[in-house]
């Protein structure tokens, strides 16, 4: 007897017959995730990897990272060179300021020497003028002269070279009795402390 194929509705595709060896399954349908042969780890598309990146920070490849690194190194080198140039200019300006401040002192020395032959007293007067000018220069640079006596001893401004008993001048214990060598400076910027003797009562 001849078997007839099952009836099918016109226009409907015929069902595919399964042929081949027994146990052979139909081909697996492909989904949006491809599988790597021999591995259970799915292959990730660029779109999938983009979702793992922090929001607002697109991924950078090696070439872009190297370019950024080279730019940063170049900027740092330019900054170092510019700082070195500016530091050199600042030092030159400070040297010029100090040298210019001492020019009047040299002028006074020249005038005193010019009149030394005709009037020896001009040497003494010139020395006094030089002293005043030198003190003014140091004070202008922020280092005024400190040679006061009777003031309280201050270890940040004074260097003790001796201890004496209070004298008839009324030097209070713990105060400066005598200035052996004057100091120069100001609060927080001491050029040289004053060498002093300090009054101290015998019982201390």
From TrEMBL:
* Biased segments, Basic and acidic residues type: 45-58
Q: What does this protein do?
A: Participates actively in the response to hyperosmotic and heat shock by preventing the aggregation of stress-denatured proteins, in association with DnaK and GrpE. It is the nucleotide exchange factor for DnaK and may function as a thermosensor. Unfolded proteins bind initially to DnaJ; upon interaction with the DnaJ-bound protein, DnaK hydrolyzes its bound ATP, resulting in the formation of a stable complex. GrpE releases ADP from DnaK; ATP binding to DnaK triggers the release of the substrate protein, thus completing the reaction cycle.
Q: Matching PROSITE patterns, A to Z?
A: GRPE
One Pfam annotation reads GrpE
Print the keywords alphabetically: Chaperone, Cytoplasm, Stress response
Region annotation Disordered: residue ranges?
1-64, 183-204
Its localization reads: Cytoplasm
- The name on file for this protein is Protein GrpE
Query: What lineage does the source organism belong to?
Result: Bacteria, Bacillati, Actinomycetota, Actinomycetes, Pseudonocardiales
Source gene?
grpE
Q: Could you tell me which species this protein originates from?
A: Pseudonocardia aurantiaca
Concerning its family, UniProt says:
Belongs to the GrpE family.
Q: How does it assemble?
A: Homodimer.
- Which HAMAP family does UniProt cross-reference here? GrpE (MF_01151)
């Amino acid at each position: 007897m001849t078997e007839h194929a099952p009836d099918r509705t016109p226009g409907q595709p015929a069902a595919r017959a399964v042929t081949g060896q027994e146990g052979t399954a139909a081909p697996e349908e492909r989904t949006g995730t491809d599988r790597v042969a021999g591995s259970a780890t799915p292959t990730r598309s660029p779109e999938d990897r983009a979702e793992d990146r922090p929001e607002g920070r697109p991924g950078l490849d090696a070439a872009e990272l190297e370019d950024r690194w080279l730019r940063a190194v170049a900027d740092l080198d330019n900054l170092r060179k510019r700082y070195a140039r500016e530091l050199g200019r600042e030092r030159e300006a400070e040297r010029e300021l100090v040298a210019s401040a001492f020019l009047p002192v040299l002028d006074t020395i020249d005038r005193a020497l010019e009149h030394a032959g005709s009037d020896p007293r001009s040497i003494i007067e010139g020395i006094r003028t030089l002293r005043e000018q030198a003190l003014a220069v140091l004070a202008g640079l922020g280092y005024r002269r400190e040679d006061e006596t009777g003031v309280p001893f201050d270890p940040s401004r004074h260097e003790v070279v001796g201890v004496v008993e209070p004298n008839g001048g009324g030097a209070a214990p713990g105060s400066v009795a005598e200035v052996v060598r004057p100091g120069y400076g100001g609060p927080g910027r001491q050029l040289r402390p004053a060498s002093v003797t300090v009054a101290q009562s015998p019982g201390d």
